[in-house]
Amino acid sequence: MPRLAQFENVGDTRRIGTVAALELRADDSGYLSSLRPKLYDFFLNRNILLRPLGNVIYVLPPYCTPVEELHRVYDAIEEAIRTLA
């Protein structure tokens, strides 16, 4: 998570255990942000089911999620930040 917080287009990050939220800077921030459909499609195309709420990416994995899978999710989030935001 600290690695993702260093991007200039990441506004705020929050985390408790494996539950995390990243707020991406956007001109139209909020629940109806135009980033939402782009992010949703981006993750779905990589077989990752994340439901962005506007310009905020939430990660709510089950406790039994293997560490490798969490790394895959965070790598995809980093790729999304680099390409979409």
How is this structure best described in words?
This protein has 85 residues and is of the alpha+beta class. It is built from three helices and three strands, in the order αββαβα. The chain has helices spanning 2-5, 35-44, 67-83; strands at residues 10-16, 19-24, 56-59. The protein has a three-stranded antiparallel beta sheet. The longest helix is centred in the C-terminal third of the chain and has 17 residues, at 67-83. 16% of the residues are buried.
Summarize the structure.
By secondary structure, this protein is of the alpha+beta class.
Radius of gyration from the alpha-carbon trace, in angstroms: 12 Å
Report the β-strand fraction as a percent range: 15-25%
First-residue to last-residue Cα separation: 17 Å
Q: In what order do the strands lie side by side in the largest sheet?
A: 1-2-3
Q: Count every beta strand, where a strand is a DSSP E run of 2 or more residues.
A: 3
Describe the global form.
globular
Q: Give, in order, the helices and strands.
A: HEEHEH
> How many helical stretches?
3
Helices and strands: which structural class? alpha+beta
Percent helix range: 25-40%
Described by strand count, sense and barrel closure, the largest sheet is: 3 strands, antiparallel
**Low-pLDDT regions:** none
Averaged pLDDT = 92
Secondary-structure blueprint:
Layout: H1 2-5, E1 10-16, E2 19-24, H2 35-44, E3 56-59, H3 67-83
Antiparallel strand pairs: 1-2, 2-3
Descriptors:
globular, 85 residues, 36% helix, 3 helices, 3 strands, alpha+beta
